[in-house]
Amino acid sequence: MNTPRELDKGYDPGGVEERWYAYWEEEKLFAADKAGSENPAYSIVIPPPNVTGMLHMGHALNITLQDILCRYRRLCGDNVLWMPGTDHAGIATQNVVEKKLLSEGTSRHDLGREAFIEKVWEWRREYGGTIIRQLKRLGASCDWDRERFTMDDGLSMAVRTVFKTLYDEGLIYRGKYLINWCPRCHTAIADIEVEYEEMQGGLYYIRYPFVDGDGGLVVATTRPETMLGDTAVAVNPDDERYAAMAGRTVHLPLTDRVIPVIADKYVDTSFGTGALKITPAHDPNDFEIGRIHGLDMVKVIDDKGFMTAEAGERFAGLERSECRKAVVAALDKEGLLENQEAYTHSVGTCYRCHTVVEPNLSKQWFVNVKPLAEKAVQVVQDGQTRIIPDNWEKTYYEWMDNIRDWCVSRQIWWGHRIPAWYCDDCGEVMVEITAPGKCASCESTALTRESDVLDTWFSSALWPFSTMGWPEETRLLKTFYPTSVLVTGFDILFFWVARMLMMGVHFMKAVPFADVYIHALVRDEDGKKMSKSTGNVIDPIEVIENYGADALRFTLAAFAAQGRDVKLSESRIEGYRHFINKLWNAARFALMHIDDSNCDETLSDASLADRWILSRLSTLRQTVAEAIDTYKFNEAAVALYQFVWHEFCDWYLEAVKPDLYGKKGDSRREGSKTVLRRVLSDVLVMLHPIVPFVTEEIWHALPGDRTSIMQAAFPTAGPAMVAYDADAEAEMELVMGVITGIRNVRGEMNISPSKTLSAEVHAGDDQTLNRIAANEDMIVNLARLDSLTVTTAGEKPKFAATSVVGNATVYALLEGVIDFEKEKTRIEKEMTKLEKDLAGVSGKLNNEAFLNKAPADVVAKVRASHEHLLAHREKLQATLEKVAEMA
RNA sequence: GGGCGGGUAGCUCAGUUGGGAGAGCAUCGGCCUUACAAGCCGAGGGUCACAGGUUCAAGCCCUGUUCCGCCCACCA
Which of A79, A487, A722, A764 gives a 20 to 30 Å CA spacing to A664? Predict the structure, then answer.
């Protein structure tokens, strides 16, 4: 293909995106570890979205940043593995499928465990691909042939191996403790899965009459229904009001039980009445006190949130909130409710369904994570894993230092079933990777498998190595573990990142990732976080349909400043869509001129504009590479935006038009065509990680046989023509200044762009004179002049508007047009600004301390600036006087 | 109670060896200039939350105050 393909007038992402994505997949361009690859390995494991998930802005940001890194690294020649997959999301998925069953008039209990699990797999086959398809629409360049699911056989093997190993090491145990119970999901949940919400409630003051003698103790509680399970009242031994009462007994109202008054320093004398009711089976702190004092544990609320028989005949069977009302009414009736006041406090809720959790006594499996946490803290302290931005390190340490045992068993059906078996005959507990045939103790074959499954995060914690084939020693592990970076939001720092570090260090003897890049959270308009379950999500797919995936990606990248949350605005996305279109049109223009012949790596004839844009390009190359290397995605995006729009389009393309439209075969024309092609092609490659679709589309319109832009190389120090050129930059700045000065006059004086002007420049030195004279054509062209005269000095032309640029004074000749009043105002305005700058600079130079203590280069800079300002003012002053005469 | 982040143009936000206050959108004025009106050329707009300190020099470093947001702990 020798002639450039013609591009449509405006960029329409529809169609283009699907076409190129299909092409990339067909060509296997996302595949890692292609045969013979000896290149440096670079790997990322995707934070696996829930299989039930729908793409939200949090995903979009997360995926975009990873995709930028992966695409960039591929362009740099690395052997890149981006491991994709989804999470089985135990509770979330079970909820979804249960809801579906409900709408079909059945339930999981009707089906039974096995049939239900089969239903979930069916659901997964039918709907589980949604989130993956959505990631693809965003452009994610994962190695899809390696896609994993946390319930895959291989991952299941990893889970069982880890479980057994930790059990054998004594780090996993089973026991009856007070855990957080969700009555709706009907399962235990871990401490960090409890979300606290402020709620309006009441504080109830209840009198517990003494058994011997008159009076009683009054306690305050927010949960009167739990009093039915009280087994003591505690007072602080240092509390003069109550100390003597310890050891006495009280009647537990509404029951026929008698409970002791005990002394414990835990009691806060300043809260409520200073006397605390103790319900060991339904409050974590009471549980602790109960253990210390050997109190009975009376469970009055069952697993579904209803009162048990132990709550007494009057209340058994009531739902817990109904029971609260009933208890309050009963107490009131018996005259034992002393007082009742409104009270706001935070209440724990289930992070999945936001039902109020019930602390409940229950037999569960736990991981003793402390020993694992210590090692995981160490590797961060050692710098084996860097957390970026590093202020998250503190949060990480804080949590790890105060970590408590992790309750990993869940009373649901969907998930990794705990690999433990109980002997029906002797009660022996066996933890094995595969089912034991008989009891290790009594040889009975009557074994029952544990019915609980594992917390979803247990399998997620193994993700960096389980996806690569562990416990097998695979080539994948050898090549790509530890991974290069983990990109994630801080909301799952504890849920996921910390646990991966613990498991990775423990089982692989190596950190799971060298870097952890923590990005901001995309919040909704109220500043609340968008969550999978609350449904307050903005749909990125809609944004993609309205603006294109590239516009969304560029916006997210430009927003991704470290340490700040993202609040998306429609107008911002629209602005970046305009940028995509700008790039498109610049390419269209370029393609009108470049052809197969201008691929030269050397330049025989370069104009100032050519040398200047190549110099700017060399700086851009460094800026972009450095920005991506340090996860400053916004800096990369902004630098590219600035270059493409305001340097390449605004100046370079306009400046080279006369050359391009010039005579065929002219060396200047050929030179510019070569530069044009070089810049466009380099910029496309640099932009590709951020906006993959439009860059691929343009890339293929370039002349010559093209492979994918994904197979191009990120611009490096060669070729020689792309180099920093201080001289070109200085000269171009002067020329741009002259042009801008004249344009400014036009604007301020309301002179139509269609009216051509003449101008005169008086240059103060030879270099300035030569530079301006050498670029007369560019100035005439871009300032829309009909003629330009350049001299070393001279009188100010009578009818002229003036601007001062460097060591030159530019006069736009305006005979018959000039409004001297206006001109006077214009110059005075500039003068005011100038005086202000001058005052600042003079102040410094008059300050001896500054001259003595500031670094020499700074002083020199200020001196130079001072001289420039003085010269500038002098020129303006002279002009102003002349203008004032005319006005 | 502990910790973290933030307060910069009308809005959304960039801004690190401390030395020039910036971008996008919005606003105002002028343009169909053959890549682009999704565009072009100009312009206006600031007590960098407040108060003190360090420094020759502070949006940036330190202290205090205040407001907003988030996380953790406690919550009888």
Answer: A722
